[in-house]
Amino acid sequence: MTGTVATAATADARVTPQNPSGYVREVVKTLKTPEGLKAKVGFSRGKAKIQPSRAITPFSNRFTVSGSGWGQVTDFGKSSSQAANVETGYIVACQVGVDSATAGAGAQLGAIALAAFGGALPAGAAGPFATVSGNVSVTVSPGTAKRITFGNKSIDAPRLMETFGVRYNSVEVSVDKCGGNIDAVAYTTLSTSNRQFDASKTIYGQLVRVR
Fold first, then answer.
1. What total of structural domains would you count in the chain?
2. Residues in contact with 50: Cβ distance below 8 Å, sequence separation at least 6, in sequence order
Protein backbone atom coordinates (compact mmCIF):
# COMPACT_ATOMS: atom_id res chain seq x y z
CA MET A 1 0.00 0.00 0.00
CA THR A 2 1.18 3.49 -0.81
CA GLY A 3 0.04 6.60 0.98
CA THR A 4 0.76 10.31 0.90
CA VAL A 5 -0.17 13.23 3.11
CA ALA A 6 -0.73 16.86 2.17
CA THR A 7 0.21 19.16 5.05
CA ALA A 8 -2.27 21.35 6.89
CA ALA A 9 -2.72 24.96 5.86
CA THR A 10 -2.32 26.30 9.36
CA ALA A 11 -0.76 29.73 8.89
CA ASP A 12 -3.82 31.75 7.95
CA ALA A 13 -6.93 30.87 9.93
CA ARG A 14 -10.04 32.74 8.78
CA VAL A 15 -12.27 31.60 11.65
CA THR A 16 -10.94 32.74 15.04
CA PRO A 17 -12.45 33.95 18.34
CA GLN A 18 -12.17 37.46 16.90
CA ASN A 19 -13.87 36.39 13.65
CA PRO A 20 -16.10 33.54 14.83
CA SER A 21 -17.87 32.64 11.59
CA GLY A 22 -16.71 32.20 8.01
CA TYR A 23 -15.75 30.04 5.09
CA VAL A 24 -12.94 27.48 5.12
CA ARG A 25 -10.77 27.46 2.01
CA GLU A 26 -11.17 24.72 -0.60
CA VAL A 27 -8.31 22.21 -0.99
CA VAL A 28 -7.80 19.86 -3.97
CA LYS A 29 -4.80 17.54 -4.45
CA THR A 30 -3.98 14.65 -6.80
CA LEU A 31 -3.23 11.04 -5.93
CA LYS A 32 -0.88 9.37 -8.43
CA THR A 33 0.32 5.76 -8.47
CA PRO A 34 3.22 4.08 -10.35
CA GLU A 35 0.59 2.18 -12.37
CA GLY A 36 -0.69 5.46 -13.80
CA LEU A 37 -3.88 5.85 -11.75
CA LYS A 38 -4.71 9.49 -11.06
CA ALA A 39 -7.46 10.71 -8.76
CA LYS A 40 -8.44 13.98 -7.17
CA VAL A 41 -9.15 14.27 -3.45
CA GLY A 42 -10.82 17.43 -2.26
CA PHE A 43 -12.47 19.38 0.51
CA SER A 44 -14.94 22.08 -0.49
CA ARG A 45 -17.94 24.13 0.66
CA GLY A 46 -16.35 24.46 4.08
CA LYS A 47 -17.86 26.65 6.79
CA ALA A 48 -17.16 26.97 10.50
CA LYS A 49 -18.76 28.89 13.35
CA ILE A 50 -17.61 29.18 16.95
CA GLN A 51 -20.61 28.84 19.24
CA PRO A 52 -21.14 30.23 22.77
CA SER A 53 -20.44 27.62 25.43
CA ARG A 54 -23.47 26.18 27.24
CA ALA A 55 -21.34 25.25 30.25
CA ILE A 56 -20.24 27.38 33.19
CA THR A 57 -16.69 26.03 33.07
CA PRO A 58 -14.22 27.73 30.70
CA PHE A 59 -12.93 24.27 29.74
CA SER A 60 -15.95 23.55 27.52
CA ASN A 61 -16.12 24.95 23.98
CA ARG A 62 -18.16 24.18 20.91
CA PHE A 63 -18.24 24.95 17.21
CA THR A 64 -20.19 23.86 14.13
CA VAL A 65 -18.75 22.86 10.77
CA SER A 66 -20.05 22.11 7.29
CA GLY A 67 -18.20 20.81 4.26
CA SER A 68 -17.78 18.17 1.61
CA GLY A 69 -14.96 15.62 1.35
CA TRP A 70 -14.82 13.99 -2.07
CA GLY A 71 -12.82 11.95 -4.56
CA GLN A 72 -12.75 11.58 -8.34
CA VAL A 73 -10.77 9.11 -10.48
CA THR A 74 -9.46 10.98 -13.53
CA ASP A 75 -7.24 8.29 -15.12
CA PHE A 76 -7.24 4.54 -14.52
CA GLY A 77 -3.75 4.04 -15.93
CA LYS A 78 -2.72 0.44 -16.65
CA SER A 79 -5.43 -1.19 -14.53
CA SER A 80 -8.95 -0.23 -13.57
CA SER A 81 -9.75 0.82 -10.00
CA GLN A 82 -11.90 -1.86 -8.40
CA ALA A 83 -12.94 0.15 -5.36
CA ALA A 84 -12.53 3.57 -3.76
CA ASN A 85 -13.38 5.11 -0.40
CA VAL A 86 -13.58 8.64 0.98
CA GLU A 87 -13.29 9.31 4.70
CA THR A 88 -13.75 12.82 6.06
CA GLY A 89 -13.94 14.62 9.38
CA TYR A 90 -11.99 16.96 11.66
CA ILE A 91 -8.90 16.77 13.84
CA VAL A 92 -9.18 18.71 17.11
CA ALA A 93 -6.01 19.62 19.01
CA CYS A 94 -5.51 21.05 22.51
CA GLN A 95 -2.31 23.04 23.07
CA VAL A 96 -0.48 21.20 20.29
CA GLY A 97 0.33 22.40 16.79
CA VAL A 98 -2.06 21.03 14.18
CA ASP A 99 0.90 20.31 11.90
CA SER A 100 2.24 17.94 14.57
CA ALA A 101 -1.20 16.41 15.09
CA THR A 102 -1.80 15.76 11.39
CA ALA A 103 1.60 14.13 11.15
CA GLY A 104 0.31 11.52 13.62
CA ALA A 105 2.41 12.45 16.65
CA GLY A 106 2.83 9.04 18.25
CA ALA A 107 -0.08 7.71 20.27
CA GLN A 108 -1.39 11.20 20.97
CA LEU A 109 -3.76 11.10 17.99
CA GLY A 110 -6.93 9.34 19.13
CA ALA A 111 -9.94 8.52 16.99
CA ILE A 112 -13.66 8.92 17.53
CA ALA A 113 -16.09 7.61 14.92
CA LEU A 114 -19.48 8.92 13.86
CA ALA A 115 -21.12 6.22 15.97
CA ALA A 116 -20.39 8.47 18.95
CA PHE A 117 -23.17 10.80 17.88
CA GLY A 118 -25.96 8.78 16.48
CA GLY A 119 -24.90 5.92 14.25
CA ALA A 120 -22.30 4.99 11.66
CA LEU A 121 -22.77 5.89 8.01
CA PRO A 122 -23.41 2.79 5.88
CA ALA A 123 -20.49 2.22 3.51
CA GLY A 124 -22.88 1.41 0.66
CA ALA A 125 -25.17 4.40 1.07
CA ALA A 126 -27.12 4.96 -2.14
CA GLY A 127 -25.87 7.54 -4.61
CA PRO A 128 -22.43 9.07 -5.08
CA PHE A 129 -22.71 11.25 -1.94
CA ALA A 130 -23.74 10.53 1.62
CA THR A 131 -24.97 13.34 3.90
CA VAL A 132 -24.21 13.61 7.62
CA SER A 133 -25.54 15.86 10.38
CA GLY A 134 -25.54 15.65 14.15
CA ASN A 135 -23.28 16.48 17.08
CA VAL A 136 -20.35 14.97 18.91
CA SER A 137 -18.59 15.62 22.23
CA VAL A 138 -14.88 14.94 22.69
CA THR A 139 -12.49 15.20 25.62
CA VAL A 140 -9.10 16.51 24.50
CA SER A 141 -6.39 16.76 27.14
CA PRO A 142 -3.64 19.38 26.84
CA GLY A 143 -0.91 18.28 24.45
CA THR A 144 -3.11 15.81 22.56
CA ALA A 145 -5.34 15.68 19.50
CA LYS A 146 -8.28 13.54 18.38
CA ARG A 147 -9.52 12.62 14.95
CA ILE A 148 -13.32 12.75 14.58
CA THR A 149 -14.57 10.80 11.57
CA PHE A 150 -17.87 12.16 10.26
CA GLY A 151 -18.38 9.49 7.62
CA ASN A 152 -17.11 7.12 4.93
CA LYS A 153 -18.34 6.65 1.37
CA SER A 154 -17.29 3.50 -0.49
CA ILE A 155 -17.70 2.99 -4.24
CA ASP A 156 -17.32 -0.30 -6.08
CA ALA A 157 -15.85 0.04 -9.58
CA PRO A 158 -15.91 3.86 -9.67
CA ARG A 159 -16.50 5.35 -13.09
CA LEU A 160 -14.03 7.69 -14.72
CA MET A 161 -14.66 11.33 -13.66
CA GLU A 162 -17.40 10.28 -11.20
CA THR A 163 -17.34 12.45 -8.07
CA PHE A 164 -18.27 10.74 -4.79
CA GLY A 165 -17.86 11.47 -1.09
CA VAL A 166 -19.45 12.68 2.13
CA ARG A 167 -21.23 15.97 2.82
CA TYR A 168 -21.76 17.19 6.36
CA ASN A 169 -24.00 20.03 7.40
CA SER A 170 -23.84 22.01 10.67
CA VAL A 171 -22.22 19.22 12.67
CA GLU A 172 -21.71 20.52 16.22
CA VAL A 173 -18.47 19.60 17.98
CA SER A 174 -18.19 20.11 21.75
CA VAL A 175 -14.68 20.09 23.25
CA ASP A 176 -14.19 19.44 26.97
CA LYS A 177 -11.24 19.40 29.39
CA CYS A 178 -8.98 21.67 27.32
CA GLY A 179 -7.80 24.75 29.19
CA GLY A 180 -5.52 26.07 26.44
CA ASN A 181 -5.63 26.83 22.74
CA ILE A 182 -8.04 24.72 20.68
CA ASP A 183 -7.36 24.28 16.96
CA ALA A 184 -9.34 22.25 14.45
CA VAL A 185 -8.64 21.26 10.87
CA ALA A 186 -10.70 19.32 8.32
CA TYR A 187 -9.24 16.17 6.78
CA THR A 188 -10.24 13.98 3.85
CA THR A 189 -8.66 10.66 2.86
CA LEU A 190 -9.17 9.04 -0.54
CA SER A 191 -8.27 5.34 -0.76
CA THR A 192 -8.24 3.33 -3.99
CA SER A 193 -7.79 -0.37 -4.58
CA ASN A 194 -7.15 -2.51 -7.64
CA ARG A 195 -6.02 -6.08 -8.22
CA GLN A 196 -2.34 -5.18 -7.68
CA PHE A 197 -2.13 -2.39 -5.08
CA ASP A 198 -3.91 -0.12 -2.62
CA ALA A 199 -3.10 3.59 -2.46
CA SER A 200 -4.30 6.58 -0.43
CA LYS A 201 -3.84 10.30 0.01
CA THR A 202 -4.91 12.53 2.90
CA ILE A 203 -5.40 16.28 2.62
CA TYR A 204 -5.93 18.85 5.37
CA GLY A 205 -7.92 22.07 5.26
CA GLN A 206 -7.50 25.54 6.63
CA LEU A 207 -7.02 26.00 10.35
CA VAL A 208 -10.01 26.88 12.52
CA ARG A 209 -8.87 28.51 15.77
CA VAL A 210 -11.64 27.68 18.20
CA ARG A 211 -9.90 29.32 21.19
1. 1
2. 15, 17, 20, 21, 61, 62, 63, 210, 211
pTM of the full structure? 0.82
Collapsing DSSP to helix, strand or coil, 57 comes out as coil
Q: Which residues contact 140 (CB under 8 A, 6 or more apart)?
A: 92, 93, 94, 146, 175, 176, 177, 178, 182
Identify which has the larger pLDDT, 152 or 196.
152
Q: What CATH number is given to the structural domain containing 108?
A: 2.60.40.1650
Domain membership of residue 161 as a residue range = 2-209
* 3-state SS record for 94-136: ECCCHHHHHCCCHHHEEEECHHHHCCCCCCCCCCCEEEECCEE
- Neighbour count for residue 149 (Cβ, 10 Å): 22
Which DSSP category does 192 fall into? E
Contacts of 200 (CB under 8 A, 6+ apart): 1, 2, 3, 4, 31, 189, 190, 191, 192
What CA–CA distance (Å, rounded) separates 9 from 4? 16
> Which has the minimum average pLDDT: 27-36, 91-100, 118-127, 184-193?
118-127
